[in-house]
Please model this.
Amino acid sequence: MPPFLLSCLEVLVGIALLFGGGELFVQGAVTLSLIFGIPQLVIGLTVVSFGTSAPELFVSLSSVTQGFDALAVSNVVGSNIFNVMVVLGSSALVMPLRVESRLVRRDVPLLIAVSAAVWGMASAGRVTWQAGIALLLALAINSVWEIRTAREEPEGVEEAEPEVNPDQGKRGVARAIGLLVVGIVLLGVGSRVLVHGASAAATFLGVSQAVIGLTIVSAGTSMPELITSLVAAVKGRTDLAIGNVVGSNLLNQLLVLGASAVAAAGGAGLQVSPMLIARDLPVMVLAALACLPIFWTRGQITRLEGGILVTLYVFYVVDQVLPRTLPTWQDEFRIVMLCLVLPAVIVMISVQAGVYWRQLKRKQKQNNLPVR
Model:
């Protein structure tokens, strides 16, 4: 088999192993949690959320141990961009996503703050182990905060959290541990196979590991989030579809990036390429800012906005590929994006937000309610 096809096969096999391992890991962890009497809401906020981010964690840690820092960082950045633009956009195309949950509205500004902080940490060219510890501490504080606020307002939050099947608690400790162990093994093997195949493909194509991590690897590790959100949208659980994206993006930065920075060899931290700092980290922050209309208007992400998000991701991937395929078109493409596409998107979102607020004020005036 030709080397390039072999590396592509490794990538596909790695993604399949990660998907299966993540699913078994979640089943085993949820079953054990139910057996030991942990509340279902806490399981949904912690165990299930961690399970969907397990592929990103194992891939980034495997990349760090093999000396591929660029792949580890780009996997986090690319996964966050993919989650907002593709997962959120595709879910909105299935069904307009209406947001009422206080949990999601609270997490949106937190996601923006964390994304901006990560960009700031990486701007020096390295995410140090001290920054990694700070991110992990922030994760612990946020998890406690999530659980406490969820218990204070259970009615609005339970609808936004992943489903937990109480019958799983009847399966027995031995079976649960077996699922957990098999899931971890599959995640470990799948991550190493995926990293090896991705690095080999990058070498063969003559592109950087960061580009492969931003596109193929990040899309592959985000498959659990995509499937979870699409199923939630089909079932009409739009809060879960959005909460899955916001929660996963927070975990990617606080847990995956933090743990990878701490695990980096010799305590040197993670090296961040100038390309990621100048282009992709700002795109990640802008993707987080794209969630602001959800937070501001308590309205919905329409199918039109979902289509815009997916289209923007296509443009983003094209911008990654052009330097290697049609380098003479790269500057013209970016000029069109900056001067035409992005302003048009901003105007469209602003107009829709303005229309929503005008309708809200008119409705409140008709009902003689104060405008908040």
User: Anything to note?
Assistant: Strands lie at 97-98, 126-127, 270-271, 300-301. The mean pLDDT is 78. DSSP finds 14 helices and four strands in the chain.
